[in-house]
Amino acid sequence: GAVVSQHPSRVICKSGTSVKIECRSLDFQATTMFWYRQFPKQSLMLMATSNEGSKATYEQGVEKDKFLINHASLTLSTLTVTSAHPEDSSFYICSASPKLRGENYGYTFGSGTRLTVV
Amino acid sequence: DAKTTQPPSMDCAEGRAANLPCNHSTISGNEYVYWYRQIHSQGPQYIIHGLKNNETNEMASLIITEDRKSSTLILPHATLRDTAVYYCIVRGGIQGAQKLVFGQGTRLTINP
């Protein structure tokens, strides 16, 4: 089945630094990937849609200059949290949409990245 | 995409069937009903989806009412490992890169 690998699973960084999170589709090509953020006891909030070879589409209220998304290949999308602050501490999750699929079993999610900014 | 309404929490005894309801009264004709679950501190896991017919797989059954305005996810023999937040999502089409928008879901607790 479709597998999405997300790395790192956990990261602690200092305030003001940048952190890069990788999302890879291991056994399928993904022209589109999605990035979500989840705060404790809350639901997943869609941040942006990552499109291979083009600019990402950000949801309303998400700062594109703060959350840089790069989707340079059909199997890799990266999310960089720039100049991180404690309020950026959250659980970040990616999801991939296969390029070609018959009956769609739905999107596959990564295991998430727990970011803590100190 | 149509909005969904789910109870915030439910309890079920281990070994019994867990029936999770979802209202989607504004669903349109080409929109599918998807169910995902999220176990604590993990990414969501796909469970099942359907358009208008009832569906069953190795994990669960999905019962969609004839008017398609509501559905029920059934876990036939719940185990402790089924404790999770269950999300019902309505989304158009089965192809293409349409985003999934999560509501608040139902926190299901399976009790021994």
Features:
heterodimer; A: 118 residues; mainly beta; 7-stranded mixed β-sheet; 0% helix; B: 112 residues; 5-stranded mixed β-sheet; 4-stranded antiparallel β-sheet; 9 strands; 46% strand
Could you describe the 3D structure shown?
The complex is a heterodimer of chains A (118) and B (112). Chain A is mainly beta. Helix content of chain A is 0%, strand content 50%. Chain A contains no helices and 11 strands. Chain A has strands at residues 4-7, 10-13, 19-25, 32-38, 45-51, 57-58, 67-73, 76-81, 90-97, 108-109, 113-117. In chain A, strands 2, 4, 5, 6, 9, 10 and 11 form a 7-stranded mixed sheet that branches. In chain A, β7 (67-73) and β8 form a beta hairpin. Chain B is mostly beta strands and 112 residues long. Chain B is 0% helix and 46% strand. Chain B contains no helices and 9 strands. Chain B has strands at residues 9-13, 18-23, 31-38, 45-50, 55-56, 61-64, 70-75, 84-92, 106-111. In chain B, a hairpin with a 5-residue loop joins β6 and β7 (70-75). Chain B is globular and about 40 Å long. The model of chain B has no long low-confidence stretch (mean pLDDT 92). At the A-B interface, β4, β5, β9 and β10 of A face β3 and β4 of B.
